[in-house]
Amino acid sequence: NRGQCTAIYAGLQHTRGRYVVIMDGDLQHPPEELPALLEKAREGFDMVKGARVNRSESLVLRRIPSRIANYLLRAVSRCEVKDMGGLSLLKGDLARSLALREGQHRLLPALVYNLGGSVAEVPTSAPPRFAGKSHYGIGRSVDVLFDIVLLWFQNSFKQRPVYLFGRIALFLFLAASLVMVWLLYEKFFFGEHMGSRPPFLGAVLFYLASLGFLSTGFILEVLSNVLAAQSGAKPYQVREIVRQEPDPAEQATD
After folding, report:
1. Which residues of the chain have pLDDT under 70?
2. CA–CA distance from 97 to each of 8, 185, 232, 254 (Å)?
3. Are strands 88-91 and 19-22 parallel, antiparallel or unpaired?
4. d(Cα 86, Cα 128) in Å, to the nearest integer?
5. CA-CA-CA-CA torsion sign (225, 229, 231, 233)
6. Which of 60, 77, 116, 186 could form an S-S bond across to 110 if both were Cys, CB 3.0 to 4.6 Å?
7. CATH of region 8-137
8. Is 164 within 8 Å of 153 (Cβ atoms)?
9. CA 24 to CA 31: how far, in whole Å?
């Protein structure tokens, strides 16, 4: 058993057909809801989510963490879907092109939206679970929080780590330089000794931290390029290719 995300990813890679559905196997996602999602998808959307109403799960362990996570995901991804979890219907070509990492099945609408896909949602019921038990809890909520932070990082800096770490390094370098200028001013004009003063030691630490953040950014940049080359994943989704067919009359003339 490799986990839910691995199972979903493996299943998506072996699907066929124009549309693909992701749903729970314990009938907590009623199959009767599928026609509504399919009808919405036929309007031209790349993905349709089922927005769960009248949920019966625990208020503290499930519904409140879910609302917070959905709010943060909307803020980070700008995807206006209110319920990122639950029943999902995707276009087959899009589903088979997704490269999911562990835990990213919880972020599917945001990932599709980041690829340029259109996402819609329709209200669906959420009946009580009658088989098995939920494995979601506070621990999973913490994992989702880290996934959201990673998604923010990717969206904000276009998957370029050096942008983030370079800005932090620049801030630390400028802050340390300002402190050093102030210390030199006091040394030359007021004769203050600077070598053993706490601001001087703090400035040195800031310089070292700046170098560390910059080096980390470059190392992560190299690693991200290697990972992107090996995975072959594309940061976009082509919906349609339009080509102008050559005129047979012109070809005959040539």
Report:
1. 1, 130-139, 156-159, 227-236, 244-254
2. 13, 60, 10, 40
3. antiparallel
4. 13
5. positive
6. 77
7. 3.90.550.10
8. yes
9. 10
